[in-house]
Amino acid sequence: RGNVRTEHVKRLNLTRRLQQERPLPLSVIKTIVTSEMGQPQGGFEELIGLEVAMGPLLADGRTLAPKRIGEVAKDTGLSDDDIRKFAAIGLIQIDSRKGGDWLNQRNVKIMEIIAQTRADGFTPEIGYTVESYAIYPQMIELLARRAVVGFYSRLGDKLDQPAAAKLAVNGIRTLSEMVPLMLIDRIVRMVEKVSESGKLPASDEDV
Amino acid sequence: RGNVRTEHVKRLNLTRRLQQERPLPLSVIKTIVTSEMGQPQGGFEELIGLEVAMGPLLADGRTLAPKRIGEVAKDTGLSDDDIRKFAAIGLIQIDSRKGGDWLNQRNVKIMEIIAQTRADGFTPEIGYTVESYAIYPQMIELLARRAVVGFYSRLGDKLDQPAAAKLAVNGIRTLSEMVPLMLIDRIVRMVEKVSESGKLPASDEDV
Q1: Domains assigned to chain B
Q2: Which residues in chain A touch residue B155, judged by CB atoms under 8 angstroms apart?
Q3: Does ipTM surpass 0.85 in this model?
C-alpha cells in the first residue's frame, strides 16, 4: 500500500501543479497526468476533492457557520465538559483551529437535539448518560464506511466529479430518509412484541 | 424466564378481563391486579400496550393506509420479486393477512426511496444489489433493540402509559433527527480524508 500511496501523492501533486499552471478542465488535466504516469492504481483519482463539489449540494439553506464549544454550551445549557465527552465517544466531531474548538452546524444541531432530549426526560440521572450514546457513533461509523468504500470502489472510475458529487449527495439523502423510517418501524414492531410476549428482546450488551 | 412468561400472561389476562368488565382507569386496574398477584416481576407491566398509545403520536399527517405488494410494485416499478428480496434481508417488513401480503406506509415509503435511488444511478448492475443493502437492517436492528431495552429497563416502572408514549415518541424523533446528521457528517469527513490520503478507509467486509 505504501507504493500506492506514494504513487497517489505524486499524481495529486502533478494534478495540482497543472491546475495552477494552466486553466484546463480536470478531464484534460487527467489525460495529461495519465499520459505522464500511466493509469492510476486506486481507480478513483477523478474523485479526489469530491467533498468540494459536494459542499454546495449538501447545503440546506440554513446558515452553516460553525460555533465555538463555549457558545454551544451557553446556547444549549449543556456543560462544556459534557460536549467534550460527547466528542470523546464520537457522537460529535470537534474541529480545532484558529485558537479554539469549534463545532460545525451539523454537530451544533446534534448538541441541540441532545439538550432537547434531556429536557424531555431522557436525563443522565435515570441512565441516559453520555456513555449510553456510544453505540450510535459505532454503528454510524460502520454504515458510513460501507457507503463510502462502496461508492468509490463501484463508481470511482466511472464518473467525473460533478456527476459523482450529484450522485453521492443523492445517496446521502437516500440514507438520511431510509434509516429513520427503518428505525421507527423496527422500534414500533419491537414494542408490539414486548406487549404481546411480556419479555424484552435480548440485548447482548449492557443497556 | 418461563416462569416470568407465565406470570406475565396471567397478569395480562387478568388486566384485560378487568378492562372488559369494568370501565376503570388503567392505574386502578393495575392496583387491583397487583393486590391479587403481587408486584410484577418484569417491571414494565404498566407499559404493556404502549404501541397503542404511541400510534396517534407517531402519525405524521400522511395517509397511513397499507398497500399490497403488487400495488407497490406497480407504483414504484420495482419487481414483486425484488420487494420480497428486500423483505428477506430485513430492509422492509411484510404483513401477511387478509389473504394477501401488505406493506405499511413506512415500508411503502422505503420501497419508493429505493426505486428513486435506482433511478438516480445506484443500480444492481453496478453493484447496488438487494444484498448490498443487508448491512442496514442489521445495524438498525441493533440500534432499535438497544433503544427499546434501554427505555423499558430504565423507565418501565416509573411512567404511566400516556407519559411513556409521549416520551418514547420524543425519543424516536430524537434518533430520527440525530442519526442522519451523524451519518452525513461522518460521510463528508470520510470523503475529505480519502481526498487527502488517496486511500479508502478499511472495510472488514466485502463491499
Answers
A1: 2-60+137-197 (no CATH), 67-132 (1.10.1660)
A2: 126
A3: no
